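Annotated sample (chain length 164).
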Amino acid sequence: MTSDEVNAGLRAGAHGSYQDEAAVELLIRHNTWLRRQDFLDQFVSGDLAGIGRAYVNWVRAVRQTVEWVMSPAERSVLVIAASLAGHPNPEAPQSAQWTPIPLAWTLANLDRRDIALILAAISHATGSHDHVEHLAANLPNGGTAITTTSPRITLGPLFDWPQE
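Output written by the structure step:
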């Protein structure tokens, strides 16, 4: 399958969850993990031919790539993506967990491009692209108030995805 098919499948599988969308988009835009055939073979699954959805097994990916050759930045991006996707799940059995990597170490390994991608992913995961500001409407008595008919301004993402 092509990288476009993998990307489309992962986006379809994550659709509807800001956190999953952010995690998948981070992997896609980082452009490292999804180019590794060993990563795709072991940790990405789904039915791209049928329903067109694919998923990353985040817990297995983070736990089993420990011995792989990669840069600290690549490891950091994978761990942050998995964390954005909600893994490890704090309610999962301990056997499904992995040892967290300290955030200070994770962030120290990033270059400006990686930082921009991660800031955009965090912005997306929080739903900032759907935030609105309610403006006060003028009342007949001369005052103002926010009402159900008050105008709203769509604010857009707090931090947008960097352009390629």
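Annotation: The two ends are 23 Å apart (CA to CA).
Annotation: The first helix runs from residue 3 to 14.
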